[in-house]
Every structure is written in C-alpha cells, then in structure tokens.
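User: quick one, fold this
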Amino acid sequence: MEISQDASRTSDRRRWWALVGFAAAVFVAAAIGGLGVQGTTGEYASLQQPSWAPPSWLFGPVWSLLYALVAVAGWLVWRRVGFGPALWAWTAQLVLNAIWTPLFFGAGEYGLAFAEIVVMWLAIGLTVVLFARVSRVAAALLLPYWAWVTFAAALNLSIWQLNS
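Assistant:
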C-alpha cells in the first residue's frame, strides 16, 4: 500500500509541476509581447483610435486574467490526453500571440499585425474545437480569450484604417 501512495504523490506532484510549466510557457509568450510594448503607452495614446478603444491601463489586467485561463486550459487538456494535436494548436496560437505585440507596437506594422491577428484568431478557434473534444471546461476557459482577441482584432483594424 505504501508504494501505491508514493506513486500517487509523485503523480500529483508531476501534475502540479506541469501546471507550472504551462504557466511558464504562457509567461514567456506574454514576456515576449511585453518586450514589444515597453515605453509604448505614449505611442498608443498618440494614435487615432475609435471612440470605443479602451484606455491603455486596462490591457494589463485583462491579459493577466486571460493568460491564466489559457495556461489552465492547456494543462487540463494535457492531463487528459498528454501532448497531441490539441496542444500543438494551443502552442501555435500562443506563438502567434507572442508575435502580434511586437508587430503592432514594436514595428508599427498595423496592417501586418491585423493579418497576423486574424491567423491567431483562427488558431484559437481551432484550439477551442480541439479542446472541446477533450474537455469542455478547457474549451470554455478559452472563450473569453477568443472574445478578447476578436475585440483586439477589430481595434487593430480600426487603428490601422485611422492611421494609414
């Protein structure tokens, strides 16, 4: 019986360390994006924006919550099926997420950033579909993220049009 309890504790620890790994992966993507926005608050404020554009201070708290949801969703799927097609899609959308911010803010390439966010939006949609086959909870955790990226894409398009 003692061996079984030790194996169970090891398995539990492995699961929690995996959650830390998923959080770290999301943190790296966020950090890459964060490097692209350092010192850009003034740049964002100077852009012509639609009347419905949120203040720049709102992005940090919203993204922090969304990144936590993305990490937990990936972890839930990993716990059920390991690393397979659903998590490859999760990884792809995360890489695309990391690329968008430097394109938009760092390079000021609003049109290219819009094209990239459309691809990211599609990748998130694919991830939601694949996650739903494994865990409805994991798929549901991605819906606020997908909705925010939809909003961000509309904002990106509007800023591109207003500043061309």
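User: anything notable?
Assistant: The chain has six helices and no strands.
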